[in-house]
Amino acid sequence: MRYRxxxxxxxxxxxYLCPNEECEKSIEVTFTPDRPAPPCSDHDSPAFSDPGDPxxxxxxxxxxxxxxxxxxxxxxxFCTDAYQDAVNDAMERYAESKYDRDR
Length: 103
Prior knowledge:
It contains one helix and five strands, in the order βββββα. With 103 residues, the chain is α+β, with helices and mostly antiparallel strands. The protein has a three-stranded antiparallel sheet with strand order 3-4-5, with helices on one face. A two-stranded antiparallel ribbon has the order 1-2.
């Protein structure tokens, strides 16, 4: 997971499986996670009014293999879960490497 700038997540490519049981082929989806509003305790700061950015999703409207229409909400939910799994894995790897260094 990479960041394009300060706390701005980069797009990631995720393989989404077609929900059609007869197809179940992989569909490439580009997902940019939400950028939450930054914490701010200074009400005069321009950052105080920064609401963050919603996530972005780039995917075909239908499966390119079987033409089944894809439901954006389901694809988005799948991508947010995949992103959270990637974050959790990265945090675990970091914790393990820090533990190994501190021994």
